[in-house]
Amino acid sequence: MSVTSVDPRPTSAWLPGDDPGDRLFCQLGALDLEGGDRLPELQIAYETWGRLAPDGSNAVLIEHALTGDSHVVGEASPGHPSAGWWEGIVGPGAPIDTDRWFVVAPNVLGGCQGSTGPSSPAPDGEAWGGRFPQITVRDQVAAEVALADRLGIDRWAAVVGGSMGGMRALEWAVGHPERVARAVVLASTAYATAEQIGWSAPALMAIRTDGHFAGGDYYRQPVGPDAGLTIARQIAHVTYRSELELHDRFGRRPQSPLTDQGDGQFAIESYLAHHGAKLAGRFDANSYVVLTEAMNSHDIGRGRGGLRSALARFGGELTVVAVDSDRLYPPRLSEEIQAARPSTRLLTVTSRCGHDGFLTESDQVGAILAKALVPGAGRDLRQGAPGAV
Ligand SMILES: CC(=O)SCCNC(=O)CCNC(=O)[C@H](O)C(C)(C)COP(=O)(O)OP(=O)(O)OC[C@H]1O[C@@H](n2cnc3c(N)ncnc32)[C@H](O)[C@@H]1OP(=O)(O)O
Ligand SMILES: N[C@@H](CCO)C(=O)O
Question: Of 12, 26, 124, 191, which alpha carbon lies 20 to 30 A from 242's?
Answer without folding.
Answer: 191
